[in-house]
Amino acid sequence: MTFFSDAVFAIAMTLLVIEVRVPEIHVHSDAVLGQALLDLLPKYIGFVVSFMVVGRFWVGHHAVMGLLKGLDRRLVWINLLFLMAIAFMPFPTAVFSDYNGLRVAVGFYAGWLIVLGVMNRWLIVSALGNPAMLRDDADPADVKLMRRSSLIPLIIGTLAFALGMIQPIFALAMLVVGSPIVSWLVRRDRRGASPSA
Amino acid sequence: MTFFSDAVFAIAMTLLVIEVRVPEIHVHSDAVLGQALLDLLPKYIGFVVSFMVVGRFWVGHHAVMGLLKGLDRRLVWINLLFLMAIAFMPFPTAVFSDYNGLRVAVGFYAGWLIVLGVMNRWLIVSALGNPAMLRDDADPADVKLMRRSSLIPLIIGTLAFALGMIQPIFALAMLVVGSPIVSWLVRRDRRGASPSA
Amino acid sequence: MTFFSDAVFAIAMTLLVIEVRVPEIHVHSDAVLGQALLDLLPKYIGFVVSFMVVGRFWVGHHAVMGLLKGLDRRLVWINLLFLMAIAFMPFPTAVFSDYNGLRVAVGFYAGWLIVLGVMNRWLIVSALGNPAMLRDDADPADVKLMRRSSLIPLIIGTLAFALGMIQPIFALAMLVVGSPIVSWLVRRDRRGASPSA
Amino acid sequence: MTFFSDAVFAIAMTLLVIEVRVPEIHVHSDAVLGQALLDLLPKYIGFVVSFMVVGRFWVGHHAVMGLLKGLDRRLVWINLLFLMAIAFMPFPTAVFSDYNGLRVAVGFYAGWLIVLGVMNRWLIVSALGNPAMLRDDADPADVKLMRRSSLIPLIIGTLAFALGMIQPIFALAMLVVGSPIVSWLVRRDRRGASPSA
């Protein structure tokens, strides 16, 4: 299961680059190509932000799986739903990159982050809430911190959505600078631990 | 072999998103983009249904592989044929999404599910029918249930095909609500077991 | 290394489906869509033949890796060259599917199979010819058979190329029916063994 | 982590072929198709060079991971940044293939190799500089050589960039012939060892 999940994460993250397409230029000059490459800035930002967002979910997923003995039938299906939401990410990313000035595009993207956050939390709470699934050597403090940390992406997604409705660019700012701040707030009573690595 | 199979499943499932393409809109307004995103509904449905269908086959495949010591030459080739049918899924999914009102599209999609069902059953019956391949600790009740369960996708595919010929939308309804019902009917004499997890 | 190689094989095989694109039809009728799906026959054939060709190389690769303790620096690079040739397969397959009536297309495809055959043989002969790399429990008869079997794809590729120059369709016939015949000829003095599974 | 990283490398390398597209020819003749396939030479070169460049980074990454017990939180994130740069490679490769006569395209490609080289070195120096992460049986001579070798891609990328600014084709020459020369210079005091295999 871990192997299969890792492959879905890796593919979804690598496929994000497909949306960054080579610009067609009609005059073959350095100036024109240079400008065309600069104009793709929203595509680069979409790639980087989504790669990091999915990467962050992967780090959390990997850490949770490391605390479990296995997955029962129910967890397998919750995991598949979560992976489906991950596999879908290239689409909201492309919408966001292409129409980043429109509230609908930003809302669609941030809305999908909320969906991911909900499924991530559902998976983590279901997995860690079942003592029969936990490894015997799982540290209760790690388990508690991981459950609490699963709120982070949900909070960030919701804030990005709300801010994006006020002004699209605020959503992006939230995603870039909000993550470390919210993480710090949620984790501040257990500094120094590295539960997700 | 398990690793290779898992990778093919993961890639085929993640590639399904490639068919969901960003709409081109000619007026940059929230209303137009919102409508364009809504118009992609058949694409979303195709993605979700196919992801879950392939995911279900993966769950079964994973469970069967867990009961085997290894694969002999013949099983390796049957497995490759099955994986080929899985790898092909993005194409019938795209045909189904693009032309969901046409019987030929629905029949093509449901027909491919029948092909998958046949190959899945062929693989499972061949693998579990060979005592030399079974792990010594494989529970005979699990083996029996798994052989029987391998009929489920075949039944669902056939019903979806037949219903789709009457009315295309019925095929979709069958795929969404039929799976739990048929699963329940086939498994009802062994509730509580979780053989595929 | 095995894991990485398996992933490259799995991705190259699954990407073959990307070349099979949904037909655009201008009249939405079952007859028109049905005809359009039939017209894609060369695409389906290209997908199936290439999937099986690459699958066959994978089976052999997997078997060889199972006889080795590890790969030294030189083998790592030969393996990377072989994987590069495998990763390139979607391109000759697409050329072959699109222009199957032209000798250049058939020659390009069959020529690439010869390249694959040469690299495959190079890898196998290098790997199995180095006693320091062989596992201690590797059966010398298996090793000998595997070295000899590595000629099969080379022979088939060369025959397909030669026949394709006479008449394009002959190349396809060779690939479909030639493989079992040549395999039988090469292996006939060791029936019943299953070295590649 | 190794598994996930390997998958990202494998996918990024295999996706490079997507940029090599079947030429559309308007006269179906062997001569026209032959010429069209020859005209794709820059695409083939881009595929081969990038496959080998990424393959080389993979070989190094694989070797470094083999010396570590695990990755702490900080290394996980440096690794993710490195993998992001790897996953992005299909884009600079496509720009380079399409506009190989323009300094901006060559500079963009070689510039990205410098980015990869910097991240690769950052990851290797961070990982090997932390004694708590090193495996107990890691040979100090291997560690030292690996740290030093991590300068190679950085040097090659910088030389390719500089030469490409003088004349675009020089960058390519550097990438093809420079790698073995620079490798030899950096390693010459430890011939015969095979630290990256």
UniProtKB/TrEMBL annotation, chains A, B, C, D:
Any GO MF annotation of the entry: proton channel activity
One Pfam short name: TMEM175
Any one GO CC term of the record: membrane
Catalytic function, reaction form: K(+)(in) = K(+)(out)
Subcellular location: Membrane
Topology within the bilayer: Multi-pass membrane protein
Cross-referenced InterPro entries: TMEM175-like
Keyword Heme set for record: no
Subcellular location, principal: membrane
Keywords carried by this UniProt record: Ion channel, Ion transport, Membrane, Potassium, Potassium channel, Potassium transport, Transmembrane, Transmembrane helix, Transport
Domain of life: Bacteria
Transmembrane regions listed in the UniProt entry: 44-68, 75-96, 102-124, 145-163
Protein family (similarity comment): Belongs to the TMEM175 family.
Stated name of the protein: DUF1211 domain-containing protein
Native source organism of the sequence: Sphingomonas aliaeris
